[in-house]
Amino acid sequence: MARGGRAIRFALAFYTYVVLGLLIYLPIVILIVFSFNDSRVMSLPWSGFTLKWYRIVLQREDLHQAIWTSLWIATVVTLISLVLGVLAANAMARYRYKGRTLFTGYVALPFVIPWLLLGIALLLFFNFLGIPLSAWTIILSHVTFDTPLVAILVAARLHQFDPTLEDAARDLGCTPWQAFRYVTLPIIAPAVIAATIFAFNWSFDAFVVTHFVSGTQVTFPLWVWSALRYPKNLPVINAVSSIIVIVEMGLIVVAEVLRRRGEAA
Amino acid sequence: MTRRWRYVMSQYAALAVNILPPFLYLLVFFYVPMSILLVMSFWKSGYMTLTPAFTFENYRLFFTSPIYLRALLNTFLIATGTMLALVVLSYPIAYYLARFSPRHERLILFLIIIPVEINFLIRIFAWKIALGRNGIINSALMSLGVIDEPLSFLLYSKFAVALVLVHEWLPYVVIPLYLALKGIPQEIIDAARSLGANRWDVFWRIIFPLSAPGLFASFVLVYIPMLGEFAVPTLVGGPSGYMLGNVIESQFLSAGNWGLGSAIGFVLLTIILILVALVLKVAGLERML
Fold it and tell me: Does A114 touch chain B (CB under 8 A)?
C-alpha cells in the first residue's frame, strides 16, 4: 500500500465498525438487554434483572402455535419452490432457444415487484375465485416470491456449468434423471443449499404478503405485528425476539463453521 | 426415426419439462393476479363493493386528492433520500472490504449479513424501543445531561422511517457494491497510476464508473421495494412519514375501497416498471442477470 494508505485503511476500518455498530447492531443489542429489564416501560434507568418475560414466552400457547404454523408453512413452501425454481433455472441457463431472455424476464419479474403489490393482487385473485383465505393461500402466495429467488440463485451457478458434462453422462448410458442426480446436482449443490436457506427464511419471515392473504391464520410475523399494537405485550415480544435473534445467529454460525469445514476437506 | 431427430425431440421434451411447471405456476399465481389488479382498478368501487362496470373514477379520485398525492410525493422523498444516504454510507464500507482486503473481510461480511436473518418486524420494534420519547437514546442522552428535553424528531417522523430503512437495506447496498468493486482488476489501477493518475483521478475516473453495475443492482434491490414500503411508516412514521404503501394497505384492509386501492397499486406498478426498464436499458440486461 502506498504512502498514506495506512491512514486511509485505519480510517475506513474505524468507519466501518462505527456504522455497523450504530446502524445495525445498536437496536438489536438494546432489544436483548431490555428483555431482562424488570419493567413494562422500556427506558432508563434500569429497573432490575428479571427472567419473567421469558417465563411468559414459555406459557403463551398462541405464540407457540404461530411459530409452529410458520415453520410448517415455510417447509412446504421451500420444497415446492425448490422444485419449480430449479426447473426454471435449468430453462434459464442450460438450453439455447428463442425466447430464453424472455423466459428469464418472465421468471425474474415477480422478484422486482414490491411485496405489497403482490399481496393485494393475490388477495383480489383469491377473492375473485371465491377461494377462502387459509394456510394454503399463504403457501401458494409464498411460492410465488420464493420460486424466482431459487431460480435466480441456482441459474447464476448453472451459468458456470459446462452442459456437455451431462451430455457425456447421457452418452455413457445414464437416464436423464441419473445424469441430473449424479452430475448436475453435485455441481449446483452449494447454490441449492443457499437457495434453501434463503427461501425458508423469506417464507418464515414474510409479513407483507401474508398480511393480505392469511385470513384468520396467524403466522409468527403476524403474531408480532398484532402484538406490537398492545403496549402490555412489548416486553414479551422483546423476550421472544431475543430468543429468535440468538437462535438464528447460532444457526448461522453453525452453518458457517460447517461450510468452512467442507471447504477445508 | 433417425437418431438425430430423436435427440432433437428429446431435447425439446426436456426443455418443456423444465419450462412448463414454473411458467404455469407464475402465470396462475402472479401474472393472472396482476392482470386482475389492473382490471379491477377500472371497476366501479365503493365500501366493500366492487362491480364490473368500467370507470376511470378510481384514478380520478387518486389524482385529484391532495392527501394521496402528498403520500406519493412523500414516498419519493423518503425513498430517494434514503437511497442516497445508503449509497453514501455503504460506499466506504464496500470500498474498504473490496480494495483493502482487510484481515477481517469475512468477519465484516458476516456481521453485515447476520441481521438480514433476523425478522424484520422485530428489528423495527427494536428501533422503536431505541428512538421513543422515553426511549433508550433519549433517556440516555438526558441522564448524561446532553439534552434537557427529549428529542421528538427521533420517532414518528420521516427521519425515523429513513433511519429504519437504512438499517434494513444497508446489506443489500454494501454487498452488490462490494462484489462490483472486488471485480475491478488491479492491473487497470496499476496502469493508471503508472501513467501518472493520482488517487483522486483513479477513484473518479476508473473505480467509480466500474462500480456502476453494483449501484444499478442495489437500485433494483433496494429503491424499488422501498417505494412499496408500508410496515416501517406504519410503525415508526407517524403522520409525517405517511407513504403510498400505507394508503394502499388501508384501502384494502380498513377503508374497504378495493378499486381505489387497485388503482393506486397500479400507478405504483407503472412507475416501478418504468424505473426497472430504464435501469435495464442503462445497465444492459446481461449485466443484471
Answer: yes
A110 touches chain B (CB under 8 A): yes
For residue B141, the Cα-to-chain-centroid distance in whole angstroms is 32
Nearest neighbour of A116 by CB, restricted to B26, B245, B289: B245
Q: Calculate what percentage of chain A has a pLDDT beyond 70.
A: 94
pLDDT at A123 > cutoff 50: yes
Region of A259 please: left (phi>0), alpha (psi -120 to 50) or beta.
alpha
What is the chain B residue with the closest CA to A128? B36
Q: Distance between CA A137 and CA A216 in Å, rounded?
A: 11
Phi and psi (nearest 5°) for A44?
A: -80, 155
- Residue B133 CA to residue B144 CA, distance in Å, equals 16
Walk me through the domains of chain A, giving residue ranges and CATH numbers: 59-264 (1.10.3720.10)
CB < 8 Å to B92, chain A: 12, 15-16
CA A205/CA B119 separation, integer angstroms: 6
Q: Which fold does the domain B21-125+155-288 belong to in CATH? A: MetI-like fold (1.10.3720)
Q: pTM of the entire structure?
A: 0.87
Touching B: A residues 189-228, CB under 8 Å: 201, 204-205, 207-208, 211-212, 220-221, 224-225, 228
Q: How confident is the model at residue B285 (pLDDT cuts 50, 70, 90)?
A: low
In the block, cell 470500498 appears at B95
Contact residues for A207 (Cβ-Cβ < 8 A; gap 6+): A221, A222, A224, A225, B120, B121, B231
- Identify the CA nearest to B52 among candidates B224, B226, B258: B258
Q: How far is CA A199 from CA A77, A206, A261, B24, B282, in A?
A: 8, 10, 24, 20, 30
Is B29 strand, coil or helix?
Answer: helix
If we measure between CA atoms, which residue out of B190, B189, B194, B193 comes closest to residue B206? B189
Kind of pairing between the strands at B49-54 and B43-46: antiparallel
Q: List chain B domain ranges.
A: 21-125+155-288
pLDDT in tens, A212-265: 999 889 999 999 888 887 767 778 888 888 888 788 778 777 777 776 776 665
The question of ipTM being above 0.85 is answered as yes
A23, A83, A220 member nearest B170 (Cβ)? A23
* Nearest partner of A145 among B273, B34, B114, judged by Cα: B34
pLDDT single digits (tens) B179-190: 889 888 888 888
Q: Cα(A50)–Cα(A70) distance, rounded to whole angstroms?
A: 29
Q: pLDDT digits over B247-273, tens only?
A: 999 998 888 888 999 999 999 999 999
Q: What is the mean pLDDT of residues B47-74?
A: 86
φ/ψ region of B156 (left if φ > 0, alpha if ψ in -120 to 50, else beta) reads: left
CB contact under 8 A, A238 and B129: yes
Location of C-alpha cell 415446492: A80
Between chains, do B225 and A115 touch, taking CB under 8 Å as contact? Answer: yes
User: Residue A174's CB: how many other CB atoms inside 10 A?
Assistant: 16
